[in-house]
Amino acid sequence: MKIKSVNTYLVRPRWGFVEICTDDGLCGWGEAVLEGHAATVQACVEEMSEYLIGADPRRIEDIWTTLYRAGFYRGGGVLMSAIAGIDQALWDIKGKYFNAPVYELMGGACRDRMRVYSWVGGDRPTDVGAAAKERKDAGFTAVKMNATEELQYIDSYEKVDQVLERVAAIRESCGKYFGIAVDFHGRVHKPMAKVLAKKLEEFDPMFLEEPVLCEHMELFKEIADCCNIPIATGERLFTKYDFKRLFASGGVDIIQPDLSHAGGITEVKKIAAMAEAHDVALAPHCPLGPIALASCLQVDATSYNAVIQEQSMGIHYNVGKSVLDYVKNKEDFAFVDGFVRLPVKPGIGVEVNRELVLEENRTPHSWKNPVWRHRDGSIAEW
To answer: Per CATH, the architecture of 104-347 is what?
Structure first.
């Protein structure tokens, strides 16, 4: 069996898909995208395709290593996102070849279902108490929200109080034991992160996400020392070597590698094992589409330290199209009592609506994140 073709597609709301087909008719799907740079990753996949045509798709480790190590320059968001989508598609082919879900080829599942959470609020969150109650009534046991708007290195306690009021609204509407994840989104710098972390303790959050950017990973321990709340990060790290430095720095309790950014199933499975060796939990980042979500669930299925899974159904980014629009086997992605069952179809587990993908690709999206500025005119972290 040899790879015959590599096709790429840009589809709304902001995703990129890759389809790899073989000479015996098997096709695999991956999600190769870096939000805001989808066309760049698409070009990178096309550039890498010369290493793929004619190769045996079952030799995933060899292909992955070729794409990563045969290039003088390696790592980073664009290259690793391209490899991630290719890797997912290769695993999809291999699972279909053996007529089994991918997790069965990685040792089998260590759980029957995976806990999931839902997003509430938007970039500038409002009415989160009511929104969280709706999610709870729908069966979810946890939500995540953006903590704050723009925040300067030193900012007003009015903004701090607004964060506390929003989290308090969720706690009041959903009860003491409902899970609340508070995402700082890298918008907060160390001085205010320490203030917020300490003050949020009273609400018993499930975790604080990206209290500072991983560019400052040596600071996580300092922030962790300010509070008794688990610290989560990792969506902007792309290789096992990035995570090696994170674990060495300490202070992090939950890692959030992205299956479409951090080298795909092959690399994230290794990262998950590294985390387990450091007694750190796994909660993969996934504000993306169905192929990325299904890939996360394959790793979750085989990772003892996986605790909860992000998913983007209902997220504020999904304008025009959403996750299940591209899925024919929608019933496999039903959320029941805050859990989703493991994929059951061979391969990644998504029967892709290829006709819709082709239609969307006729008018490719060019999604970009907003550019925020502080009141003094300086650029703010989004």
So the answer is: Alpha-Beta Barrel (3.20)
Q: What does the alpha-carbon distance between residue 357 and residue 43 come to, in Å, rounded to a whole number?
A: 18
The label of the residue with tokens 């000479």 reads 23
Is 365 in the active site?
A: no
d(CA 261, CA 238): 6
Which secondary-structure segment (H or E) carries 63? helix 60-69
The pLDDT tens digits of the residues spanning 50-91 come to 999 999 999 999 999 999 999 899 999 999 999 999 999 999
Q: Which amino acid is at 89?
A: A
CATH classification code of 3-100: 3.30.390.10
Domain boundaries of the chain, sorted by first residue: 3-100, 104-347
Whether 261 is a known active-site residue: answer: no
Looking from the CA of 252 toward its CB, the CA atoms found within 13 Å total: 33
Active-site pick, 189, 285, 316, 374: 285
- Report the predicted TM-score, pTM, of the whole model to 2 decimal places: 0.97
Active-site option among 185, 189, 261, 365:
185
pLDDT band at 314, cuts 50/70/90? confident
Q: According to the model, what pLDDT value does residue 265 have?
A: 98
Is the peptide bond prior to 13 cis by the omega test (within 30 degrees of 0)? yes
